[in-house]
Design goal:
about 375 residues; alpha/beta; TIM Barrel; 2 domains; 8-stranded mixed β-sheet; 3-stranded antiparallel β-sheet; 20 strands; globular
C-alpha cells in the first residue's frame, strides 16, 4: 500500500481548493472535514497531501471506467435511457463498512483495496464517451469531491462536446467546493446515509455538512436526487425516516428520493438484506411527508409502482421502468404531464431517445489508457 501511495503521489497537480496556513500547513476545503494538513501529511481522504506548503491533488488517471444506464446512478429525472460514461479515481473521505466500491474508495486505507490506475487525459475520456454514445459524463465510484479538480478538467471538455455532467457523491461538501463545481456540474446525486449524527460518525463523517450541502445544491440550481440505502437496524427506524423525509420536503417536495435495498457487502455482513416490504414502508413515509417523487430501487419488479414516475397532480403514468430498463415513456416534449399539463421537474430531452443500454458494461477499447506501473510486489 505504501508503494501505491508513492505511485499516486507522483500523479498530481497543485489543487485549487485550499488555503495556505502558517508553518507550511494548508487547509483543504474540498470536503466537509476541512483538514488542516501539516507539511508531509495527507488529509483524511489519503489522496490530497501537503508538500512544502502546497496541496497536491490526484491528476491524470482513473481507477476505473464503466458505462451505465443513467438509471443506475440513479438519476430518474434526467435523460431517461441515456448512457452515462462513469469514471472514478481512488480514495474517499468516509469509510463505510458496506461500501460496494471499496476496492477504489478505500485505496490507501485498506491493504486489500488495490486497483491499478489507468493513465488518461480529459480529452481522451470525452472522446471515448462520445464514441460510445454517452449523453452524460459522471464522476463516481470513489468520492468525487476529493478529486474535484480532475473532474472539472474532464467536465470542461464534456460541456464543450455538448454532454451533461454529474456527480455521484456522499454530499460531504463545503460552500467553496460547491461554488467551484457550480459552473461545470449539471446533476448531483447525494447519498443521505442516515439522519442520525452518531451513525454518520461511525462512517467517518458528520450529518450537518451533508444536510447543508443538499440545501446549497438545491438553492444553487443543480439538479439534485437523493438516495438512502435502507439498512435494517442501522437507519430504518420509523422515527429516523420521518425526520429524514421531512428535511427533504422542507428543501423541496420535488427532489426525487430513492430508497434502495441493502445487501451484505465488504465489512457489513451482520444486518439482513433489505426486503421489498421494507422499501415500500419507507416509501410510504416519504409520500406522507409530501415528497412528490419517491422511488424504490435494487429490487426490480418487486416494489409495485415504485420504479415508475407518475404525475403528482393527476397520477398519470409518465415513465415506466423495470430496473434500469425504460418500458414506457409518455412525458410531453415540454417536460409536462400530457394529461393535465403539470410540469415535471428534471433535465429532460424533448423526446425519449431510446434505451442506450439496459445494463452496465466496461468499454472494450482501452487503447487510450495504459496502466500506471505498479511495483511487482503489489
Amino acid at each position: 500500500m505504501v508503494m501505491l501511495q508513492d505511485l499516486l503521489y507522483k500523479n498530481v497537480r497543485e489543487g485549487e481548493l485550499y488555503e495556505k496556513l502558517e508553518d507550511n500547513r494548508v487547509r483543504c476545503v474540498a470536503c466537509g472535514h476541512c483538514c488542516a494538513i501539516p507539511d508531509g501529511r495527507s488529509g483524511v481522504c489519503k489522496v490530497r497531501y501537503n508538500r512544502s506548503g502546497t496541496l497536491y491533488v490526484p491528476w491524470g488517471y482513473v481507477g476505473g471506467v464503466q458505462c451505465d444506464p443513467i438509471e443506475k446512478k440513479p438519476f430518474f429525472h434526467a435523460r431517461p435511457g441515456a448512457l452515462a460514461y462513469s469514471f472514478g479515481m481512488l480514495g474517499c473521505d468516509l469509510h463505510c463498512g458496506y461500501c460496494q466500491n471499496w476496492v477504489t474508495s478505500q485505496a490507501l486505507r485498506d491493504p486489500a483495496a488495490i486497483v491499478p490506475p489507468l493513465q488518461v487525459t480529459p480529452e481522451e475520456s470525452v472522446r471515448e464517451a462520445l464514441q460510445l454514445g454517452a449523453k452524460v459524463v459522471v464522476s463516481t465510484y470513489n468520492e468525487p469531491l476529493i478529486t474535484a479538480e480532475w473532474a472539472v478538467a474532464i467536465f470542461k471538455e464534456a460541456r464543450e462536446a455538448g454532454l451533461l455532467t454529474a456527480f455521484v457523491s456522499n454530499g460531504n461538501g463545503t460552500p467553496q467546493v460547491l461554488e467551484y463545481l457550480r459552473p461545470w456540474v449539471d446533476l448531483y446525486k447525494v447519498d443521505l446515509k442516515s439522519f442520525d449524527d452518531r451513525r454518520y460518525r461511525q462512517l467517518g463523517g458528520r450529518l450537518q455538512p451533508i444536510l447543508d450541502t443538499i440545501d446549497r445544491l438545491h438553492e444553487a440550481g443543480f439538479w439534485v436526487e437523493i438516495v438512502t440505502l435502507l439498512i435494517p437496524g442501522f437507519n430504518d427506524s420509523q422515527d429516523e425516516l420521518k425526520r429524514l423525509v421531512s428535511f427533504l420536503a422542507s428543501v423541496s417536495p420535488d427532489i426525487p428520493w430513492h430508497v434502495t435495498a441493502f445487501h451484505k457487502d465488504y465489512k457489513m455482513t451482520g444486518p439482513e438484506n433489505t426486503q421489498p416490504e421494507m422499501l415500500m414502508r419507507a416509501a410510504a413515509i416519504g409520500k406522507r411527508a409530501g415528497l412528490h417523487y419517491v422511488y424504490a430501487g435494487n429490487l426490480p419488479g418487486m416494489v409495485g409502482d415504485l420504479e415508475n414516475t407518475r404525475c403528482p397532480n393527476c397520477n398519470e403514468l409518465l415513465i415506466e421502468r423495470h430496473g434500469y430498463l425504460i418500458t414506457g415513456y409518455r412525458l410531453a416534449s415540454t417536460g409536462c404531464c400530457p394529461s393535465c399539463g403539470t410540469g415535471i421537474p428534471g433535465r429532460w430531452a424533448t423526446s425519449f431517445e431510446g434505451q442506450a443500454s439496459a445494463r452496465p458494461f466496461i468499454p472494450t477499447a482501452r487503447a487510450r489508457s495504459s496502466l500506471l506501473h505498479l511495483p511487482e510486489t503489489l
